[in-house]
Amino acid sequence: MDLGPYLLLAALEGLVMAAVLALTASGLCLVFGVMRVVNVAHGEFFMLGAVAAWFITDHLAGPPWLGFLAALALGPLFVGGIAILADRLILKRLDYEPEATIVATIGLLYVFQQAALSLFGPDARAVAAPFDWRIQLPWFGYSGYKLAVVGAAVLLLLGLWLVMTRTRFGLVMRATQYDRETATAFGIDVDRVYAGVFGLGAALAAVAAVLVVPISQAHYLMGGDPLLLSFIVVIIGGLGSLRGTLVAALLIGMSDGMISVFFSPTLAKILATLLVALVLVFRPEGLFGKRAA
Question: Which pTM value belongs to this model?
Answer without folding.
Answer: 0.91
